Amino acid sequence: MRRFLIILIVFMLLLSGCNDEKSITFKGKSDHWTANYVEKLSEAGARDPSGQLLSSNYVSQKLSLKYEGLNVSSVGRVKYSYETRHGSGSGHTVLNQDGYLIISGGHGGNNASLTESDTVIVVTVEWNGIKEVIRLTAR
């Protein structure tokens, strides 16, 4: 039993050493919205003697928009678009009951990496004939 526990602990330590996660957060505000964009980089696999990762990376992305106005139910349908280093996205949706709009995604590959901290991410939000542009910077 003791030998099994030692093997299990060693195995868990090896697995935890194979997954190195880093992240970056971008934030911004406009008159009616607060935006938060988070990327998390998961590096999975072993490294060669020079430190080069031998298998792929995955970057998860999450954009959260929060309506800061007084009456969330008056917002109706929201059109949004955003542009990052890794691509862009857009769509139409309604806010949840707390006034949030959350968009998630990701991409992977051996060369997948986080957006650089000097990048400005541009988010555009349109609702009820109003349009606002939010510039997100790293925090």
Please give a structural write-up.
The chain has about 140 residues and is mainly beta. The protein has a single domain (about 20-139), classed as Immunoglobulin-like (Sandwich). The protein has one helix and eight strands. Strand 1 (about 20-30) and strand 2 form a beta hairpin. The protein starts with a helix and ends with a strand.
Précis, in short:
This protein has 139 residues and is mostly beta strands. 12% of the residues lie in helices and 55% in strands. The protein has an eight-stranded antiparallel beta sheet with strand order 5-4-7-8-1-2-3-6.
Structural descriptors:
mainly beta, eight-stranded antiparallel β-sheet, Immunoglobulin-like, 1 helix, about 140 residues
Q: Any idea what the shape is?
A: elongated
The pLDDT mean sits at: 85
List the total number of helices. 1
| Helix and strand sequence | HEEEEEEEE
CATH topology: Immunoglobulin-like
Number of individual domains? 1
Q: Can you tell me the CATH class?
A: Mainly Beta
Number of extended strands: 8
Which structural class best describes the helix and strand composition?
mainly beta
Distance between the termini: 48 Å
> Low-confidence parts, pLDDT < 50 over ≥5 residues?
10-19
- Biggest sheet, in brief? 8 strands, antiparallel
Beta-strand portion reads over 45%
Mind telling me which CATH architecture this is? Sandwich
How is the topology of this model organized?
Blueprint (H helix, E strand, L loop, with lengths): L1 H16 L1 E11 L3 E12 L12 E11 L9 E8 L2 E8 L5 E10 L11 E7 L2 E9 L1
Antiparallel strand pairs: 1-2, 1-8, 2-3, 3-6, 4-5, 4-7, 7-8
